[in-house]
Amino acid sequence: MENFLPLLNKLHAQGSLEKEEWCALFSQYDNDALRRTAAEMAQQITLERFGNGIFVRGIIEFSNYCVNDCLYCGIRRSNKNAERYRLSENEILECCRAGFDYGFRTFVLQSGEDRFWSCGRLCPLVNRIKCSFPECAVTLSVGELTEKEYRQLYEAGADRYLLRHESASSEHFSMIHPVRQTLDSRMQCLRALKRVGFQTGCGFMVGTPGQTFEHLAEDMLFISEFRPHMVGIGPFIPHCETPFGNCSAGSVELTLLLLSLCRIMFPDLLLPATTALGTLLPGGRIEGILAGANVIMPNISPMEIRSKYSLYNNKNSADPGNAGVLHSDLQQQLAAVGRQIVIGRGDYGERLC
Ligand code: 5AD
Fold first, then answer.
1. Over pLDDT 90: what percentage of the chain?
2. Where do the domains of the chain lie, and which CATH numbers do they carry?
3. 236-250, pLDDT tens digit by residue?
4. What residues does ligand 1 touch, defined as CB less than 6 Å away?
5. If DSSP states are collapsed to H, E and C, what string results for the chain?
C-alpha cells in the first residue's frame, strides 16, 4: 500500500500534484484510512476559513429544453419522452421572492441550453432580479455562449457562472458527448467566463462510463491550473432514457475523496455538496460537508415542475419539500454536525474566520 500522507501534505503545500501522484491516491480510494485522513485535513482547513458557516444557494431550474445531446443526461434533446417546460419571467421572480423570504441570498438560474431563453431574454431577467433583490447574488448555469454574450450577462448584473467541464480529457469527453460538442469549445467558454469577470465554477461527474483514474487526474490537473472559484463534483447516476441507462452509478467514496482533495488543494474554494451525492446516499450532502464541502444548493423551483428536470433517476429524492420545509430540515441536519447556514451571498474569498 502506498503511503498517502506525503502526497496529501504536498498537495496542501503546493496546490498541485503530478499526474502519477493523483493516480496513486485515486487507486487507493477504497482505503478507509486515506479517505478518513483526507476528510479530517479538509474539514480542518474548511473550519479555519469558514468557521461553522455553510453557504446556501437556491437553485431554480427554469427550463428543461436543451439543444445538446449529452449521452448521460436525462434532458438531452434525443429524449423524446422528457416532458418539456419553461418558467416565465414572473414565475422565476416568484421563486426568488419565496427563496429570499427563507434566507437565500444567492439564486442559481439553471436550464438546458434553451434557445428561447437567449441572452436577449436573460439580460432583462437578471436585471429585474438584481433590482428586486439588490443584496443578492445571481449565478447563471445556462451552458455555452459566446464571450460577447457572457459579457452582456455580466453587465446585466450576473455575478457567477457555473459550467462544468464534465471531463478534462478529450478522449473521455468525446465518449460521453456527441461529436458536435467539444472539449475545446467548453474550455474556451470557461476561459472567457473568467476573463469577463465572473466567479466561475467548473466541475465533473465521478464514474461516467469509460472514466479512468488517468482521466480524473486530468480533471484535477486542469482544476489546479485553471483555478476556478467553484468546483461541482457529483457521482454519475444513470437515467433510464439515455444511452447510459444500464450503466452503474459512480462511487460515493471516490466522490467524497475528490471533494476532500479539492479542499486540501484550494482552501478558499466554493465546494458544493451536490444533489447527486444526496441522491445516491441518504444524508450524502452532510457527508460531503464532512469531507470538506462548504456550500449546499437546495432546489427552490416550483414543486410541480421538479420531476421534469430529471437529469438522472430519482433526482428529487434528496429535496422532497418546498423551500421552507427544506430550509428547516437542512438547518437541523447541519446543526447535528455543528454547522449552520450563513445568511449572505457567500462570495468567493469571503472568510468567516
Ligand atoms: N448523473 C449525474 N450528474 C449529471 N449531470 C447531468 N446528467 C447527470 C447524470 N446522469 C450533471 C452534469 C451537468 C449538471 C447540471 O448535472 O455534470 O453539468
1. 93
2. 16-342 (3.20.20.70)
3. 999 999 999 999 999
4. 72-73, 164, 166, 205, 234, 236-237, 239, 276, 311-312
5. CCCCHHHHHHHHHHCCCCHHHHHHHHCCCCCHHHHHHHHHHHHHHHHHHHCCEEEECEEEEEECCCCCCCCCCCCCCCCCCCCCCECCHHHHHHHHHHHHHCCCCEEEEEECCCCCCCHHHHHHHHHHHHHHCCCCEEEEECCCCCHHHHHHHHHCCCCEEECCCECCCHHHHHHHCCCCCCHHHHHHHHHHHHHHCCEEEEEEEECCCCCCHHHHHHHHHHHHHHCCCEEEEEECCCCCCCCCCCCCCCCHHHHHHHHHHHHHHCCCCECECCHHHHHHCCCHHHHHHHCCCCEECCECCCHHHHCCCCCCCCHHHCCCCCHHHHHHHHHHHHHCCCCEEECCCCCCCCCCC
299-340 tens-digit pLDDT: 999 999 999 999 999 998 777 667 676 678 889 999 999 999
Task: Give, using CA atoms, the residue closest to atom 13 of ligand 1.
Answer: 164
Mean pLDDT of the chain: 96
**Atom 6 in ligand 1: residue holding the nearest Cα:** 73
User: Cα of 205 to ligand 1 centre, how many Å?
Assistant: 7
Nearest protein Cα to ligand 1, atom 14: 164
Q: Closest Cα to residue 70, out of 143, 129, 151?
A: 143
Cα-to-centroid distance, 316 and ligand 1 (Å): 13
Q: 202 has which bridge partners?
A: 231
Tens of pLDDT, residue by residue over 27-52, are 999 999 999 999 999 999 999 999 99
**What are the cell numbers at 296?**
449546499
